[in-house]
Amino acid sequence: MLRELLGCIGAAPAGLVGDTATDTLDNVGTYRAAGTGTTCTTIETTLKQTYRTLLMRIAAIDLAGTYPENSRRVGQPEVPLGTVTAQLADLADAALTAALAVAIRHVYGDNPVESQLAVIAMGKCGARELNYISDVDVVFVAEPADAAATRVASELIRLGSHCFFEVDAALRPEGKHGALVRTLESHVTYYRRWAETWEFQALLKHRPMTGYLPLGRAYSDVISPLVWQASQRNSFVADVQAMRRRVLENVPEAMKHRELKLGEGGLRDVEFAVQLLQLVHGRYDETLRTPATIDALAALIESGYVGREDGANLIECYEFLRSLEHRLQLQKVKRTHTLPAESDYQTLRWLAHAAGFRGHMTQSSVEKMLDELRKVRLSISSLHHKLFYRPLLDSVVNLSVDTIKLSATAAKEQLRALGYLYPDRAFEHLTALAAGANRKAKIQAMLLPTLMEWLSTTADPDAGLLNYRKLSDAAFDRIWFLRLLRDEGIVGKRLMRILGNSPFAASLIIAAPDIVKQLGDGATGPKLLETKPDTVSTSLVRAASRHDDPDKAIAVARSLRRTELARIAAADLLDLMTVQEVCRSLSLVWDAVLEAALRAEISAALRAENLTTAPAEIAVIGMGRLGGAELGYGSDADVMFVCQPAEGVSDTDAVRWSIGICDRMRKRLAKPSGDPPLDVDLGLRPEGRSGPVVRTLESYRRYYQQWGETWEIQALLRAVWIAGSQQLGERFIAMIDHFRYPDGGVGEKTIREVRRMKARVDNERLPRGADRNTHTKLGRGALTDIEWTTQLLILMHADAIPELRTPATLTALQVVAEHKLVDPEKVQTLIDAWIMATLARNAIVLVRGKRVDQLPQPGPQLAQVAGAAGWNPEDSQEFLEHYLRVTRRARKVVDEVFWGEVISEHDDY
């Protein structure tokens, strides 16, 4: 091929000392085309025709081997894929050698060639695994890298792209913005100082192709060691994963099933996986330093980094896809890796026949080809996790007799590359889970490759693996646990997402392992949603009431609350509940705990005092977010207690008895435990923290009538009965309606007072050093801004619009929009911000395990918060920018509606 292409242009060695060019035209090197007798157009036409003839010669031999021998035709031996791709790469080498010869003639004429120019092949050409119709990626290195060398390189690209295939130099340092030609020293300086991870991944397939090969080999000698150090970069894993994700995201959804290369279960999946393993282990194992995918996979198998059976299956699948890609390109001699549309049956039929498929009575050749393609894609996807994780388990326990055991050092190196920041600990967890001869260890060894792949997509795989180990220990005596993970894949997938994204939820599940049973799907959908919050509340109160000892009753309530919190958090993390549903469910759990605790205290007091009836009825009034059914994971319970003396009992005695009940209940609930705290806050009662813990209904009425301040009346907007005597609670609510929904609405004086209080909150309540832009409670456009705006609108309009008489922020805002008290579009802006701020606030607790209102700075912890909020952890910056954008718009609405500022109509809401 080289002789034919060089011979057709009358090429001869260019005369560089040490060059590999020969008079017999046997070797690639630096040649010069003949200078007389032919025009530029004639040369290009000759080169194009010669190249196409040679290409079709390869294709003819390849296709002939597709057809089996029969009575009418002598069969041809099948040509291995590796032979075809190598021949195509050799043809590309020959073609660009010829193009370089013409470029040298064009630039230098008959003058001496003063620059040594080496052409470095990259990508599939560099790995000698080229397609029929493909771009050929190149990089140029020259000594000196002068204007003449640049002109030669430019002319080579022009000529090669016109006559043969697209020649692309975009993989050079700095890409298309960088110098086309560099010296060796310049290349080395760039790769040592500024190169990104993807550039080292690209260099894995580099190969001195043609031109002045001594310089090309010198380039390879210096650059190759840098390639094998890339896996030590801090950003290595994230960079590789981001590259793969970008490839998948760039494939339109409608085209994914037609993509042979870029879709899931496609060629790029195999190539990325193999390259990652090469970069991880090639640093120590030089047998892996081979550029071709199939050769590299074979080396990985031989050295034990990939299981033999899995590797063989992967090679078979990869070769099938590459062969199908070749046939697809030969149909129209056009670069493509996209299958024809299903409606284009004739083209599909041609492709199936060219790929060697034959139809029969029950299945056409097209159906057979598409069936095989589906199987191959599924196989690649299922083998993907084994490729990375199965050898890790083999390093702990031999799963098959023909598998070479991966060393502990290599296993830890692989764990680090897969995103584990603490590979020594991760390896210890694997050993603890899977080592041993018992049945459970064997099942764990079967499960862990898949579980670990699911963990790798979470915000914190290290914590996830540790949590799984703890959960496995906690569920050691539960026979169903491993069986469920083995038989219902969705359970394991959901469990790993929870364990790797939320320490808070993980600790709840470890303490209540039976919740894992609810991670599967039932007849009507996810089992997590089969449990209704109202039913949970009733069951919690009933179970606690079976115990006379209030400590035991509250212990039962804690246990059932723990299980319900685990259910809610799991459903939240799996995006099975909306923010509103999460908050309502959390609020109902608190209501039930308070009901159970109050009943237990009253029952114990009656026994202790030998009473048959209680001296007073007690009702618990929910306030704040508890009253609005808008509690988050870390919220306290804001309440007030009201009592009503029994017949014949004085107010003083009734209040004294009720205070004893409520104080003991609060202290018992606040006792330290391993569960999330149960703190009851009475700060919103009359006179605040200095006021009595319990008042009678009449005492409350007198207080609000004579001394109630604006902030206390505003607090009543979210008051609702939640526990204790329902009749008394409803009487209390009816009594306060007169104060919180005054006839005609509040006047300007009250509006000014509410605004004054809000200004004071803004100035005094934000913690020192907090960032107002990212504080989910007190920040700009965050929860407090939206809730105060809503409450001001209720104070102003609830008398005239009864639907506004609701403690729930979002319900009130919807009424505001329906009645057009505020432009509905602006109301939606407030709703969106409330949901986003609540989502973020809950996510912080799911990650931190305690109430923190400030979003973290960009970094690993923000990635965890983003993951807990349902975003991809790698998109944490986008999550933060979305939060800032939504709350910024909400703040403009607050400035207009709450503060009365005039906002330009051009402002963006």
UniProtKB/TrEMBL annotation:
Lineage top rank: taxon: Bacteria
CDD domains per UniProt: NT_GlnE_GlnD_like
Glutamate-ammonia ligase adenylyltransferase repeated domain location: 47-211, 493-732
Cellular component terms (Gene Ontology): cytosol
Protein name, entry field: Glutamate-ammonia-ligase adenylyltransferase
GO molecular-function terms, A-Z: [glutamate-ammonia-ligase] adenylyltransferase activity; ATP binding; ligase activity
Residue span(s) of domain PII-uridylyltransferase/Glutamine-synthetase adenylyltransferase: 241-388, 756-897
UniProt keyword annotations, A-Z: ATP-binding, Ligase, Magnesium, Multifunctional enzyme, Nucleotide-binding, Nucleotidyltransferase, Transferase
Gene giving rise to this polypeptide: glnE
Major enzyme class: transferase
InterPro entries xref list: GlnE, GlnE_rpt_dom, NT_sf, PII_UdlTrfase/GS_AdlTrfase
EC number assigned by the record: 2.7.7.42
One GO BP annotation of this record: regulation of glutamine family amino acid metabolic process
